[in-house]
């Protein structure tokens, strides 16, 4: 009887252990901070295979910019998306793990420009250029400096102090003898542009309406947004300036100090697979960071020449100066 009792106890213990192990396996979760909307939807499109292969549930939460970095610093995320500004801020604050090439093996398949840091990687690129109404802008713009033409004064615009305008600021500095280390020539030139702008747009629908009403005929805008505007019935063209298109970049990082570091690395690697990378093109109109993809029939700019020509400044130099530059922007460019 005693032996039977012991066997029953051992059997019960084994069942309890199995149930606990099963519950633990089912509770394995990877928390990913992403930009939300269509961007997150595109990532989710190929997530089922990753979840199955790694026996994990991926949970997406909205997180970008300052909010994304705050959540990363609070260890609320395993993976976080960012742009170059917040990528380098996070790196400086020790928020991210170094990517492990033995796990993130797809790093080897990326354009060199995508591997900007040991602590993060670019997943996709976009193009900022000049959106214009062909009826009112003739000849078509060929340079960023066309935004400065007196004949369009009051009918041009750009956004506020965002990453793309920081790139434009640095470009104007470089065209006038300056650099990231000598930004004064850039501010002087951008202050001249500010005099031509009646409204700095803050939202894409706002700029769409400005084009629709004719208040704006030319603006710095994303290529994909010009495609969107045409679908909304506002006929616009897109020009890549001779100086180059300003690069929009999306970055991804593994958060330091979380228990799922290896799994988070695998997730980053998943975002860089051929299948996932194609989705950035087909669903979002972005240029994939992975080289050698077959994108026949997909209307997105792609290839060595496209990626290498994108204007991307030295953000490691820019980030420590951003707060001071923002103050100058408001005083010298907006207030004018």
Task: Give structural notes.
The structure is a single chain. The chain is of the alpha/beta class and 336 residues long. The chain has 2 domains: 27-123 and 246-310, Periplasmic binding protein-like II (D-Maltodextrin-Binding Protein, domain 2); 125-244 and 314-332, 3-Layer(aba) Sandwich (D-Maltodextrin-Binding Protein, domain 2), CATH 3.40.190.10. 44% of the residues lie in helices and 15% in strands. Strands 1, 2, 3, 4, 5, 6, 7, 8 and 9 form a 9-stranded mixed β-sheet that branches. Helix 4 (65-73) runs parallel beside helix 5 and helix 6 (163-175) packs across helix 7. Residues 12-26 have low confidence and may be disordered.
* Integer tally of domains: 2
State the total count of DSSP E strands: 9
Q: What form results from the Cα inertia axes? A: globular
In helices, the fraction of residues equals 40-55%
CATH homologous superfamily classification of the largest domain = Periplasmic binding protein-like II
Low confidence ranges: 12-26
CATH architecture of the largest domain: 3-Layer(aba) Sandwich
The major sheet is characterized as: 9 strands, mixed
Instruction: Report how far the terminal alpha carbons are from each other.
Output: 94 Å
Radius of gyration in whole Å, from Cα? 24 Å
Q: What's the CATH topology label of the largest domain?
A: D-Maltodextrin-Binding Protein, domain 2
Contiguous helical run count:
14
